[in-house]
Amino acid sequence: MFDMGAKPAPLVEARGLARNFPGRQGLLGRVRDVWAVRDVTLALAPGETVGVVGESGCGKSTLGRMMMGLDRPTEGSVSFDGRDLAALSAAERRKLSRRMQMVFQDPFGSLDPRRSIGAQITDGLRIHRLVPPGEIEAELFRLLDQVGLPRSAASRRPHAFSGGQRQRIAVARALSTRPDFIVADEPVSALDVSIQAQVVNLLMDLRRDLDLAMLFISHDLHVVRHLCTRIVVMYLGRVVEEGPAERVFATPAHPYTRALLTATPSLKPRPTGGAPRILPGELPSPANPPSGCPFRTRCPLAEAACAEAVPAARRIEPGWQAACIKAAPEAVA
Amino acid sequence: MSRSTRKLLLPGGIVLALVTVLLLAPLLPLHDVRAMDIPNRFAGPSAAHWLGQDEFGRDVLARLIWGGRASLFIAVGSALAAATIGTLLGLLGGYFRGVVEVLTVRAAEVLLCLPPLLLALLVVTILGAGTWPLILALTLLYTPNYARVAYAATLQVRGLDYVTAQRAMGAPPLTILGRTILPNVLPPLLVQMSLVVASAMVIESGLSFLGLGVVPPTPSWGLMIRAARGAMEQAPMLLVWPSLALAGTILTFNLLCDRLQTALDPREVTKGGALWMRRPGRRKTAAARRPGAADDNGPLVEIRNLAISVGRTPQIDLVRRAMLTVMPGETVALVGESGSGKTLTSLALLGLLPDQLRVSAGEMRYRTRDGAVLDLAQLDEEAFRALRGPEVSMVFQDAAAALNPVHRVGDQLAEALRAGGLTGERAVQARVVELLRHVGIPDPERRRRAYPHELSGGQRQRAMIALAVANSPRLLVADEPTTALDPTIQAQILDLFRKLKTDTPDMGLIFVTHDLAVVSELADRVVVMYAGEVVETGPVAEVFARPKHPYTAALIASVPEGAADQLRAIPGSVPPPHDMPPGCRFAPRCDHALPQCTSRVPETSHPEASRSSRCIRWKEVC
């Protein structure tokens, strides 16, 4: 569905990915389909950082979990290095997990409160027998150095660290298995601005030094713009726009991307040309999505044709497409 | 040693003493438990027999201790066995779910359908009386309890990120269960353990009493009670000793269980009690009130040298020397990272500080509608109550938590309006609809009948704002009102605040946030706080264009909005309140710091009339 252009063979590839969480309303209600993710096709090349943005409930975290193989897609498939994750046995899947790692949003929930951080960082080394037992400590120190933590940190438990430090511990843990692919699910959202910058800088350095492919999930457009080479915008479980970060941010082609950019507060005073366009209404319920284009109920450009069918992705440029019948690059005021 | 650990000492000590005595029974100089002395049956306490002699003239103390051994062995033995098996079943069922859950937890639950005493009787009847059948019966009885507790705790823990992280790491399921989940579900199981030991002792005694437990002449508390019952009229004390021992042991174990629960659950329980029961403060309303100043252009609020502290010896200042001025109609943003004291300062303005904290210095002058000047730092709770609503009001970050979930939104609004003095049901309802419409809730006639959970996040925040402005306050304090919202919804709420500003031009707004971009969208002036101190104030555009404090400058540079390749991160983190650096609190993280920064607290400088900076090198910052 999406045209990848002339790129190296993808490391991770999702094809027609969809995830349904059927739910029942009330005690005797009918079981209803609730699609968190629908029809997402996405590929990451080695060394590439792709940002996934969208508001809460748009399915970006579910997408991340499926790309990691932590959640089974209802439809479609994810393949890593050419191998379909669903076809692997549990043991093979565990073996493959060395090459794919995850960094979570909540630095307080993602570390086991009862074990020292040294033990937690080296879990991966032991599980996958990456280094001989005698060299585990040296490797631990190397990892702590890499994320900028003192070596004395190894014997302490998570509660002794601040949010930013914990997030670095989580990054060190993810890096311990020398992965090729990292899913970072809102890794800086829970952090203060000054600490956020520490972690963003760390991720940028790592990407450059280790040639990691990264799926960076965030609702903060500024961070995504700063960090990512490519951006995927999601709305109600579907990808509405995908393209090179700089191009998409400068002249978004989909009206939702434009609205999202306009809504994001900025340090720089806006040119005073009336109040900024503010999107009316709220995200529809995924249990009861609108017909046709999911965005049409809030879209300033919507017309009758939008209700008829889900718009196909329209190619704007090689590697840049938007799922809107009126898609056209347009600068945001 | 923490308070909860100290409280463990009493029951823990008793249990330890008890267990020691029982374990050392063979070494103690006790009489033989079976040595009969018929001539002296029912003899009272004597030097040789401290607690007297029973119906066969046997020593009661020795029998009590040896009987306790039997009871405790059975109780602890069955509790341990049940704990091991039950925990295993619960862990497996809770982690794997599906078929495994049916085979483990659900299967164990079948046992719960049988009356406990009947089940024990059944086992003992089949296997015969004695110690080991009793242990088996009690184990069967308590295994489902453990399985359920372990199952519930596992279900809670398995969804947490650190377990998912282990899965993502490729750890095999049994490793995850043993290394990550088990230690984290242990606390409730330990509590369950002491509960089960106590309860097993009761059942054991009951069965022995019925003659189905320990076989005579082996002593046991249940047997002793049974025997003493027959001789109740000749020697009533014989019944008292084993009953006391049984009741005392069970109460001790229950106490231990309670205290363990508190010790293992570190959540601090706040000081309870109704407001009127608390120790009255030094605050006096009369002293706080001063005649109105003549000039009408004075500030709405003026905070001077405010300090908010916790504890008395040592007193720790969470906020100190805070300065803040709000003119009527002005929007002041209070910006800072977590731990900067921005929320505490705003709570102090409404007298809503948590119980442990107090305003320890400074004044907060507030000019009321009738022109009088009040010092909010001196007000008591009653005076604050009169002020909240018509004078000052607050919008909280989490509207879902701030609205009462069991009352309709419209009813909550109506209650606030009635408290504000509006009378007449029709007028109140009309005003409710008007307010809801004013904050942009569509179809207000219908939506006022909705419960908070029926509204979306954005709608709830709107309802919260309607509640705050219901009585047209002169000062509105908004604490991170858009932080939990999505960008497009945040834009809507910010727009609503803009609308409120134009509709009520005299209302002062204090907007507490950590988001600098939101500040530049909404505020007139900004007050930057760091580690409990105000470091810089001034008009928003000027402060953002030319910051005069290194912290403000670093904060602006750390927002990923420019074209810079590398963001400017501030090294280190905010110091904890009990360990503040001397001198300038930002000095350890500051790249402009000089030796004198750490030795002396910097004075406030005024680069321009409308601006202030608490930095000795403000001239060089930009």
TrEMBL record, chain A:
Quote the InterPro entries the UniProt record gives. Answer: AAA+_ATPase, ABC_transp_ATP-bind, ABC_transporter-like_ATP-bd, ABC_transporter-like_CS, Oligopep_ABC_C, P-loop_NTPase
Q: Does the keyword Electron transport apply?
A: no
The record's annotation in SUPFAM superfamilies points to: P-loop containing nucleoside triphosphate hydrolases
Question: Which keywords describe this protein according to UniProt?
Answer: ATP-binding, Nucleotide-binding, Transport
Q: Which CDD domains match?
A: ABC_NikE_OppD_transporters (cd03257)
Spell out the subcellular localization from the entry. Answer: Cell inner membrane
GO cellular component terms listed in the entry, alphabetical order: plasma membrane
What is the membrane topology noted in the UniProt record heading this document?
A: Peripheral membrane protein
Major localization listed first in the record, in broad terms: membrane
Q: Which residues form the ABC transporter domain?
A: 12-261
SMART domains linked? AAA
Q: Does the keyword DNA-binding apply?
A: no
Q: Which domain of life is it from?
A: Bacteria
Any one GO BP annotation for this protein: peptide transport
Pfam families assigned to the protein according to its UniProt record, in alphabetical order: ABC_tran, oligo_HPY
Where is region (Disordered) located? 265-289
> What would be an example GO MF term here?
ATP binding
Q: Which family does it belong to?
A: Belongs to the ABC transporter superfamily.
Q: What NCBIfam families does the record tag this protein with?
A: oligo_HPY
Q: What is the protein's name according to its record?
A: Peptide/nickel transport system ATP-binding protein
Automatic annotation (TrEMBL), chain B:
* Compartments in which it is found: Cell inner membrane; Cell membrane
Classification via InterPro entries: AAA+_ATPase, ABC_Ni/Peptide_Import, ABC_transporter-like_ATP-bd, ABC_transporter-like_CS, MetI-like, MetI-like_sf, Oligopep_ABC_C, P-loop_NTPase
Q: Which UniProt keywords are listed?
A: ATP-binding, Cell membrane, Membrane, Nucleotide-binding, Transmembrane, Transmembrane helix, Transport
Q: Name one GO molecular function term.
A: ATP binding
Start and end residues of each ABC transporter domain: 301-556
Q: Where do the TM regions start and end?
A: 72-96, 117-142, 189-215, 236-256
Which branch of life, at top level?
Bacteria
- One Pfam match, given by its short name, reads oligo_HPY
Alphabetized Gene3D superfamilies for the sequence: MetI-like, P-loop containing nucleotide triphosphate hydrolases
Q: Provide the Gene Ontology terms for cellular component.
A: plasma membrane
Tell me the membrane topology, using the record's own terms: Peripheral membrane protein; Multi-pass membrane protein
The record's annotation in SMART domains points to:
AAA
The UniProt entry's GO biological process terms, in alphabetical order, are: peptide transport; transmembrane transport
PANTHER family, per the entry: DIPEPTIDE TRANSPORT ATP-BINDING PROTEIN DPPD, OLIGOPEPTIDE TRANSPORT ATP-BINDING PROTEIN APPD
The family assignment reads:
Belongs to the binding-protein-dependent transport system permease family. Belongs to the ABC transporter superfamily.
Q: Report the protein name in the record.
A: Peptide/nickel transport system permease protein
Organism of origin:
Marinovum algicola
